[in-house]
Amino acid sequence: MKAEIIAVGSELLTPDRIDTNSLFLTEELNKLGIEVLRKTIVGDDRELLAEAFRDALNRVPVVIASGGLGPTEDDLTRETVAELLGRRLQRNDAVVRAIEARFRSFKREMPEVNLRQAMVPEGAEVLPNPRGTAPGLWLEDQGRMVALLPGPPRELKPLFLEQVLPRLEKRSNAVRMFHRELRVTGLGESHVEERIRPLYTRHREVHTTILATPGEIQIHLRAWNEDAASTNTLLDELVRSFELALGDRIFARAATSLEAVVAQLLLERRATIAAAESCTGGLLAERLTRIPGSSSYFLGSVVCYSNELGLMFQGN
């Protein structure tokens, strides 16, 4: 099964907000064997929203959207999806009572504008949201599934896990995602690609991604299949071929940082380490000490940054 994620909100198109919901949703969908084909961020524009939902529903059977369910005029997700699917919006009295009760718990009167959050597309299931005033919505249309979730992560995450996940589990098939990760140091992205490309291009059923990050290269292998045994065997064989091609440049076979690997080796060998730094300005010491318990092996560091101080040390 395949899905798309739509993040709604003009604030997500500024440098002030980051769409973290999509990362959470992707991870949870992948666990179910649902592959995310596309993520889209759309501002609060009715035409653009309609285009995003229409295109997504033409491509995949599952669309998960976050945001645009608030009480203000720029919250357009409910209205847009209802119009796109040809559904009337109907006031849901149970939602009205839930919103009123939430305001009473804060000893405040509910503003009239919050009634917009009680307008539910015809045939939609209301997903109760005890952590906010915007309920989620679940719609099904011609074999397609749409989940509309509130934007705040503290509301979206539990609502997805409690309400959306069980619905998707009932409809998901036996396909699952299988993943391997290798981390490499001492080689650039192009050099890693040069060494392993002849190996991974033999297996088109495995998605291979090479990512360059500061100080390391990450290799991600992902395969979608029903047969766990054969898929794990294939991925393990591919990892072994990468190990032959990259040798000791591989420092981890999981999402493990280089400093964590160094820490483990020092602890196993009961060794200690100290640092003398110049142009790095203490960054090496910072990386070594970001690991909990580093005081058991890290003795300390000296940072000699200026030429004048360096000459003083040389003189002594």
Summarize the structure.
The chain has 316 residues and is an alpha/beta fold. The chain is 39% helix and 26% strand.
Explain the overall architecture:
With 316 residues, the chain is an alpha/beta fold. The chain folds into three domains: 2-171, MoaB/Mog-like domain (Molybdenum Cofactor Biosythetic Enzyme, Chain A, 3-Layer(aba) Sandwich); 176-252, Alpha-Beta Plaits; 258-315, CinA-like (Maf protein). It contains ten helices and 14 strands. The strands form four sheets. Strands 2-1-3-8-7-6 form a six-stranded mixed sheet, with helices on both faces. The protein has a four-stranded antiparallel sheet with strand order 10-11-9-12, covered by helices on one side. Helix 6 (189-200) packs across helix 7 (228-246). It is globular, with a radius of gyration of 26 Å. The protein starts with a strand and ends with a helix. 25% of the residues are buried. The mean pLDDT is 92.
Q: How would you describe the shape?
A: globular
What's the CATH H-level homologous superfamily of the largest domain?
Answer: MoaB/Mog-like domain
Distance between the first and last residues' Cα = 69 Å
- Under the CATH scheme, which class of the largest domain? Alpha Beta
CATH topology of the largest domain: Molybdenum Cofactor Biosythetic Enzyme, Chain A
> Could you give the order of strands across the largest sheet?
2-1-3-8-7-6
Q: What is the string of SSEs from the N terminus onward?
A: EHEHEHEHEEEEHEHEEHEHEHEH
Radius of gyration: 26 Å
Strand runs, count? 14
What is the arithmetic mean of pLDDT? Answer: 92
The CATH architecture of the largest domain can be named as 3-Layer(aba) Sandwich
**Can you count the helices?**
10
- The unreliable regions are none
Tally of structural domains: 3
Strand content: 25-35%
Structural class: alpha/beta
Largest sheet: 6 strands, mixed
Helix proportion = 25-40%
